[in-house]
Design goal:
Layout lengths: L12 E3 L4 H8 L6 E2 L6 H5 L5 H19 L4 E11 L2 E3 L5 H11 L3 E12 L2 E13 L4 H11 L18 E5 L4 H4 L3 H11 L4
Helix pairs in contact: 4-5
C-alpha cells in the first residue's frame, strides 16, 4: 500500500463534462470521481465577442458553477478548450467539409490551443489557463482530404487528433503539458488538487 492510500480526499470530485477524452485523462490521477453534464449554453457565450482566452476561461467557470449548484459538497472541475489562429476561434467542425476547411486555414501556420480549467469547491474557487503553440506543416488539399477521412476529427476543435494520426500534420509543438492538448492539463490540475488536500 502507498503511504497515502488511507488518506481521504477532502471533497467528492466531479468532472463537469461528459467528454470521454477528459474522463480518460482524469482517471489517470487515480482519484475516484463522477462525471456530470453541465448543461451550459456554449453557443450563447460564444456570441458575446470574447477573446479566445476570455471565452475558454468563462466557459470553464460556467461549467464548474453549473454543476456545483447541484453538488455544493464537492470539488467540481470545469474545463474548456479553444483553438485559435490570429484571434479567430475554430469550433468542433461536425462534418468532413468543415474539418477540411479548418485544416486548410491552419496549414502552414502557427496557432494556439488555449485550455482553461476552473475548480469550484466549498469555500472557494480558482482558475488557470494553459497555452500550447502548434506549427502545422504546409499541406496540399489532397493530403488534408486523406487525413480527415482517415482520422475523422469531427468532434475536435481545429479538426485534428494529436493522440492519433493528427500528429503527422505538425512540424513542432511547444507545450508545458501534453495532456492539455487533449483537454485537461493534468500537471497544473494535480498541483491545485494537492493544495486542496487530495492525497498524492
Amino acid at each position: 500500500m502507498g503511504k497515502n492510500q488511507s488518506l481521504k480526499p477532502p471533497y467528492p470530485l466531479i468532472l463537469a463534462s461528459t467528454s470521454k477524452y477528459r474522463g480518460e485523462l482524469l482517471s489517470q490521477l487515480g482519484w475516484d470521481f463522477e462525471m456530470m453534464k453541465p448543461g451550459v449554453d456554449e453557443d450563447k457565450v460564444k456570441q458575446e465577442n470574447h477573446s479566445p482566452s476570455e471565452l475558454s476561461l468563462l466557459l470553464s467557470k460556467y461549467k464548474a458553477q453549473a454543476v456545483f449548484v447541484k453538488r455544493p459538497d464537492a470539488c467540481v472541475i470545469g474545463s474548456d478548450q479553444v483553438c485559435t489562429l490570429d484571434g479567430k476561434i475554430f469550433d468542433k467542425p461536425g462534418s468532413i467539409e468543415a474539418a477540411t476547411e479548418q485544416i486548410s486555414l491552419l496549414q502552414g501556420k502557427i496557432h494556439e490551443l488555449i485550455t482553461a480549467v476552473t475548480l469550484v469547491y466549498p469555500g472557494g474557487s480558482e482558475s488557470f489557463i494553459n497555452k500550447t503553440t502548434l506549427h502545422m506543416r504546409p499541406l496540399t488539399l489532397s493530403e488534408i482530404h486523406t487525413y480527415v477521412n482517415e482520422d475523422l476529427p469531427l468532434d475536435c476543435a481545429g479538426s485534428y487528433k494529436l493522440e492519433s494520426r493528427g500528429i503527422k500534420l505538425f512540424k513542432t509543438i511547444e507545450m508545458s503539458d501534453h495532456t492539455a492538448i487533449i483537454g485537461l492539463p493534468l500537471i497544473d490540475l494535480t498541483s491545485h488538487l494537492l493544495k486542496l488536500g487530495y492525497p498524492l
